[in-house]
Amino acid sequence: MKKLINKLAAARRYIEPSIRIKLCVLLAVGMLSGCAKALPAQIKNALFSQKRNTGVVDLTRMSATMVYAEVFNMMVEPENYVGKTVKMNGMFYVYPDEKKGTYTFACIIMDATACCAQGIEFRLRGEHAYPADYPEPNTNITVQGTFYTYEEDGFTHTLLIDADMTVRK
Fold first, then answer.
1. If DSSP states are collapsed to H, E and C, what string results for 87-137?
2. Mean of the per-residue pLDDT values of the chain
3. What pLDDT does residue 166 have?
4. What highest taxon heads this organism's lineage (predicted)?
C-alpha cells in the first residue's frame, strides 16, 4: 500500500500545473452537471415565476473561500438568486458547441487552494461576435449580470443574462 501511495505522489509531481487546473475545471463542471437534476417544468415555472429576487450579490468583495461557497450555493439553490444582480471576478473560458455551431462563455472561479473550480455561464448584453468581441481564454475578467436559469437536455443550467464584462489588469 505504501508503494502505491508513493507512486501516486511521484506521478502527481510530473503533471503540469495548467493541466491540473484544466482537469479540476473539467471535474467541477462534470460534478455540477450531475448534481443539477432538473425539476419538472410545471414546478420550475411555478417556483421561478412567483419568486423574483432583487438585490446585488457582489462576489468581488469576498474572500476566495466565500466566493467559492456562494457560487456553489447558486448551483444548489438557484431559486434564491434568480433575478438578482451578480458581480464576480474570474477567468474567461469559452466552450464551443460544434453540434449547434455556438459558443458558451463562462466566468470560472477557483477555490482558495486553486484545486477546484466552479463557473457561471454568461451572455453579454447586445450583439457580440466571438472571438472579435471577447478576450483570450484564461484572461482575468469581471462580469456583472442578472442571474437566471434555463433547462436544456433535462438539466437546469445557471447563467448571467444582460451581462457586462470588463478585462481586469
1. EEEEEEEEEEECCCCEEEEEEEEECCCCCCEEEEEEEECCCCCCCCCCCCC
2. 81
3. 97
4. Bacteria
